[in-house]
Amino acid sequence: MEKISFLLILVFFLTSCEENRKNDWLKNSLSEIQSIDPADTNYTDLESLKKVIGNSKVVLLGEQEHGDGSTYLAKSRLVKLLHKEMRFNVLAFEADFFGVNKAWVDYQRGKKDYQDVLNQMYIFWPQSQMCENLFQTIEKSQNTQNPIILAGFDNKQLSNVSREESIPSLDSIIREHRILISTPDLEFFKRTLEEAMNKFHDQEIASESQDRFLSILEALTEEFKRKNIDSFWTQELKNIRGFMMHAWHWWIDRENDIVDNNHRDLQMANNCLWLLNEKYQGEKMIIWAANGHITKTDTLFKVEAEGWKPAIRQYPMGEVLFDSLGEEMYSLGFTSYKGESTFLKYDSVAQDFIFQSYPFVPADSTSFEFELKQHGFKYAFVDLSEQFGLSTMTDRRIRVWRPEYVKGKLSDIYDGIFYIHDMKPNKKL
Question: Which residues are bridge partners to 152 per DSSP?
Fold first, then answer.
């Protein structure tokens, strides 16, 4: 009995020590943030975040939901800080690679206005009240010696500029440089691409036609390289391939809602690296995207996901970038304990999309968000660097996308976490 009592006391003691280590880690790694107001330019509350970002060339800013207005405010404030005090001059959105970058060049040349550039993005950002201050700041910065550059890296080629200008522009370059391609092949290529931009995942195309398209695309790519055509166009041909593969092969099992996002994430990472290493070489870049894209590992496959799981290993953009950039990138995920979000809903009367709100249920008592809630902060930053010891190895349940949870070592998923206690919904301008 004495041995059993001793063992029970020892187990209780070790469990208490482990719990204390967990609590000490979180207490030491947690910093309160005073404000998410982008108009607040007193950045003293963000010093701990600035310190860990350090000499990174790329900062990835996530969002738990595309209707999370509070995160939009917080990210807008962070963008302004990173630009003003850390010389991050390129802001790249999860938005149409061809459409945004082409519109931006035309804007710089006086051929398009600023709103034309914003119109190439998904509407939950440029039409958001929460992003208004940021986009006004970007426009005003164009008249300074240190302007913010807008870019896009998504291979989903669905914007107005893509639909209206990409094929005529490509056709013009093919003719100007006398690229060797038969008229039937060129017409087939243009027709297939146009149909994909209009129908996207609903394009019905036989595997033989897919192979023919890809074969023509490969031949074009080789010719563009051989004739040393502007690197934007060689990258755009890669982007077209990523777009078509995503359009054709996204659904693994439509009936059971099982998808494969690899073609999209791999190409988005490739587009980001092109922007960083070629288009804006020497500049530091901010990447604005969903949490699921900026994670450093596959949160639906490698760690324990609750709910559906893809049939194959997924490679999020953040993991691909981390493999290339390592410590030169910093990934900041965003999460909330509770609140309200929005989704896009088409209003047939207004003939426009509205931001429809819905409740974001409180996180449960076994979640990391619940742990953070106990500290009583409205906003906080969690540093996930290894300086806080092995307790960061402990698996925790956390929300990455919407209210669903994953479980894993937090520092494998992000480099840091921005916590918002009460999510406020996005509001339309």
Answer: 93
The CB-side HSE value for 55 (13 A sphere, CA atoms) comes to: 3
Q: At what angle do helices 231-249 and 262-274 cross, to 10 degrees?
A: 170
Lowest mean pLDDT among 53-62, 105-114, 292-301, 364-373: 292-301
The pLDDT of residue 349: 86
For residue 115 the two structure tokens come to 């709103």
Q: Is 342 exposed, middle or buried (0-12, 13-18, 19+ CB in 10 A)?
A: buried
CB 52 within 8 A of CB 416: yes
pLDDT tier, 309 (very low <50, low <70, confident <90, very high otherwise): low
Fold of 11-93+124-144+285-423: EreA/ChaN-like  fold (3.40.1660)
Residue 306 binned pLDDT confidence (cut-offs 50, 70, 90) = low
Listed by start position, the domains of the chain span 11-93+124-144+285-423
DSSP for 314-367 reads ---HHHHHHHHHGGGEEEEEEEEEEEEEEEEEEETTTTEEEEEEEEEPPPPTTB
Beta strand 352-360 with 88-96 is: unpaired
Q: For the chain, how far is it from start to end, CA to CA, in angstroms?
A: 71
What are residue 92's DSSP bridge partners?
A: 151, 287
**Distance between CA 249 and CA 318 in Å, rounded?**
21
Q: Tokens representing 190?
A: 């243009």
Task: Give the pairing of strands 379-383 and 149-154.
Answer: unpaired
3-state secondary structure of 395: strand
Q: Sort 372 into a burial class: Cβ within 10 Å, 0-12 / 13-18 / 19+.
A: buried
CA separation for the pair 355, 71 (Å, rounded): 16
- Spatial neighbors of 205 by CB under 8 A, at least 6 apart, are 192, 195, 213, 248
DSSP states of 25-94 as a string?
HHHHHEEE-----TT----GGGHHHHHHHTT-SEEEE--S-TTBHHHHHHHHHHHHHHHHHH-EEEEEEE
- Is the pLDDT at 68 greater than 50, yes or no? yes
| CB neighbours of residue 429 within 10 Å | 11
314: which 2 tokens?
Answer: 């997924």
Bridge partners of 335, per DSSP, are 419
Paired tokens of 369: 């968000």
B/e letters for 150-160, b = 16+ CB within 10 Å, e = fewer, are bbbbbbbbbbe
